[in-house]
Structure formats: structure tokens, C-alpha cells
Amino acid sequence: MIPALRLGNGSQLPAVGLGMWKTDRSQVADLVKTAVDVGYRHFDCACDYGNEQQVGQGLKLALQSAACQREDLWITSKLWNTYHAAEHVRQACEKTLDDLGLDYLDLYLVHFPIATRFVPFEDRYPPEWFFDPESPNPKIEYAPVSIEETWRAMEQLVESGLVKNIGVCNFNCQLLRELLTWATTRPSVLQIESHPQLTQEKLIRFCGQEDIAVTAFSPLGAESYYSLNMAEENESVLRQPVIREIAAAVGRTPGQVVLRWGVQRGTSIVPKTARVERLEENLAIFDFELTKEQMEKISALNLNRRFNDPGQFCEAAFNTFFPIYE
After folding, report:
1. Which of 311, 307, 320, 303 is nearest to 240 (CA)?
2. Centroid of chain to Cα 83
3. Would the pTM of this model clear 0.70, i.e. be above it?
4. Which end of the chain, N or C, is surrounded by fewer C-beta atoms within 10 Å?
5. Identified catalytic residue from 49, 108, 125, 226
6. What structural domains and CATH numbers belong to the chain?
7. Chain segment 3-27, per-residue pLDDT in tens
8. Closest by alpha carbon to 106, among 279, 268, 307, 325?
């Protein structure tokens, strides 16, 4: 059994999930079924990942094989930037549910605190970042939609039974604090980039104070970003001498040490892999503990190094300066 984080409403969020970002569609269905067989119950999806239909196929295979029941699974998805207006939120959620072959989501997150111009579902899905990729000078086009408008529509998804929990991604303390002043349904989860080189200690502490669970994406840091030219291999936290020393001391791989640090500090984590042996390795982190000193040494690797930063990649890849972090 994978330990879980208890949310404010009593829901149990498994501490380790499988991230579906950048997983090739041709691999997804078999990977999801294999992951369920290995022991995964938490799957982190999103409209923008472009593979929710294939995730749904894998979930169907798992449920048909009686490897698990629907109530055993925790399925997260995310509202994309183009669907922030109130009239589009439910449509986006229903499209995700249809692709996944599910009646409800365990968690639905606002993917970014970024609202962009609506792209009709029939024109392009997922819509990605450009409003018009065929334009001579394609750009991201901003939409004047408030977080409050989007959140009110998210709350209605809970009221209608389409979603069990709602939350946000990539929010900072101030955005969370503002949301909490008027939210009727409080966010259950904040999902953020966090790893030993981006510890985000103040933000995680604030979430603990407000009873908001934290999920760390990219918990191994640079590894997911090499193929996107957003990180250099010499930035790998897995190559750090302190990580290798601790791994030797506890008889585990560097990856297991870093993932153990993530769950031991109280966050859930959603590492990504398409390799069966790595699926098993990433779950085998609950039969050992890091000492206080080892935890502190890993945290001391913090460089405030953010790999997934719209203020950088939007300008580089989408011709638009779109910062959300200072």
C-alpha cells in the first residue's frame, strides 16, 4: 500500500503518482495498465499533455482486468489556459472525462494562473499555447478572465459531482492568500515544481498552515527538461556528490533518495517514466528513511532553480513574454 496525504475533506491522495507529461501516446495505454499492476493508483494527467484518451484506454484495461476498482484510483487532470472563462470550464472538464472514460475526477487543477483566448474544441484540441499557430507571427494571446471567475466555475464542478476535489498549479503564496479570502470551496491541493534545487520551503510551509496538500511535479529536477533544451545534463541533482554519498549509505539509487526526500518532507510526488523497472524503483521508497542530517544536506542543494518557468519558455518557444514569477 502506498501511503497517502489526507486532504481537508477526508480524501486520501496517494503520496506517489505517475506523471503523464511528455509520455508518447503510443506507449501510454500499456504503461498505465502496467503501472496499475505494479501498484500505482495515482495518475497525474492534463488536457495539455495530449494523451488523455490513451490514459483512458489504459485505465479501462486495468479496470476490466479487475486489477483495481475505480474507487481505488486517484485521477488528477487540469484545466488548460484557454478554458478559464466560466462558460468553458465545465465543457473542458467534460471533455477530459470523456477522453479518460470516467464519470468523475478525484482532483481537477487550474493548470496555470494564466488565461488565454478561447480556442473552440472543434477547431483544435488540445489547443496548446498559440492562439493561431498558422499566423505569420504566432503568439500567446491573453484573455481578461479573473481567477475568481474561473474558481467559481471550478466550485460548480464539485457541486455537480463531476469532481471530488479542486486545486491549483503554479500559484504563489499571494495568489493562494487572495483565493482563500473569497473561495467557498477551498483548494485541496497545490501542485508546484519542487526538487532539491527548488525546495520552495516558504510556499510549502504556508500550504501546511492552510491545510492545502502539496504535490511536487518534476521531483527529480532537470531530468524531464533535457529533451526540451530547458536544462543541461550537468544540472542533474542525481549527479550531486551528496546525493550519491547518501544513496551509498542507505543502499538505494540516487533517484530513490531524491524521491524519498520529496515524500518525507510531506509532499506527494508525480515522477515520470516509461520504463517498467523505473516504475518499480520509484515506488520502492517507503521501507527506508533518511536521517534529519541527510534531509538537511539534500535541502541545502537548493538553488531556487526553476526549470518550468513561463517567463522563460513562453518567450523562447511562443514569441511571448509571459512571466508569472518574479
Report:
1. 303
2. 18
3. yes
4. C
5. 49
6. 12-232+265-283+304-318 (3.20.20.100)
7. 999 998 999 999 999 999 999 999 9
8. 268
Here the cell at position 44 is: 497525474
Provide the strand spans (E) within 89-232. Answer: 107-110, 166-169, 189-193, 213-217
Over residues 131-149, the pLDDT tens digits come to 999 999 999 999 999 999 9
Angle between helices 254-264 and 276-283 (to 10 degrees): 40
Q: CA-to-CA distance for 28 and 23, rounded, in angstroms?
A: 7
| Residues 143 and 135: beta-carbon distance below 8 Å | no
Match 487550474 to its residue by C-alpha cell. Answer: 110
Q: How far apart are CA 313 and CA 319, in angstroms?
A: 9
The cell numbers describing 25, all together, are 501516446
What's CA 108's distance to the chain center, in Å? Answer: 10
Residue 157 and residue 108: Cα distance in Å, rounded?
9
d(CA 315, CA 166): 30
Q: Is 138 exposed, middle or buried (0-12, 13-18, 19+ CB in 10 A)?
A: middle
Nearest CA among 193, 92, 84 for reference residue 141: 84
C-alpha 211/C-alpha 285 separation (Å) is: 25
The C-alpha angle with vertex 279 and arms to 225 and 245, in degrees rounded to 5, equals 70
> Taking Cα atoms as reference points, which of 120, 121, 111, 141 lies closest to residue 129?
141
Report strand pairing: 42-44 vs 18-19: parallel
- The total number of residues written for the chain in this structure: 326
Say which residues have a Cβ less than 8 Å from residue 74's Cβ, sequence separation at least 6: 12, 13, 14, 17, 41, 42, 43, 106, 107
The answer to whether 49 is a known catalytic residue is: yes
